[in-house]
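Thread: "does anyone have the structure for this chain?"

Original post by V.I.:
We have the sequence but no experimental structure in hand. Need at least a predicted one for the grant figures.
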Amino acid sequence: MPKAKKETTKKSVKTVKKTTLKKPKTIASKKSVKQIKTVKATKSSKPAKVAKTSQKEEPKVKRTRKSSKQDTGSVDFQIDNFSQKIKLLAKHLKTHTHDFDSRRGLLIMVGKRRKLLNYLKKTDLKRYEEVTKSLKLKV
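Reply from O.Q.:
Generated one for you, C-alpha cells below.
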C-alpha cells in the first residue's frame, strides 16, 4: 500500500506542472492591437499641463525688480525672487501641513533671503529700506 500512495502523489505533481506551463490564449485580433497602439501614440504626444499659478506669478515679480533684461544676479532681484517663492511655499504648507521636505526648503530659502538682506543692509542702507518697504518685510 505505501507504494500506491507514492504513485498518486507523483501523478498529481506532474499534472500541476503541466497546468502552470500552459500559455494563456490571446483573444485580441491584430486589428485591435493596432488600434491600441495608435491610441497610445496620440495620448503620449500631448504636452504635460503645468500649474497656472506658478507661470503667471513669476514673470510679474521678475519684471518689477529687474534693472535691465539681462539682470538676474542683482541683490534686489534675488531677494524679490526668494520672497515670491517663499509666498508660494507658505501657501502650499497651509494646505499640506505634514510636508516636511517642503518646509525644510522654505526655511533654507528664508535663510538665504535673510543673508542677502544683511548684505544689502551693510552695503547700501537706502536700497535695503526700499526693498523691505516694497516687499513689506519685517525689519
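V.I.: this helps a lot. Residues 117 and 123 are 10 Å apart (CA to CA).
O.Q.: and Residues 54-63 have pLDDT under 50 and may be disordered.
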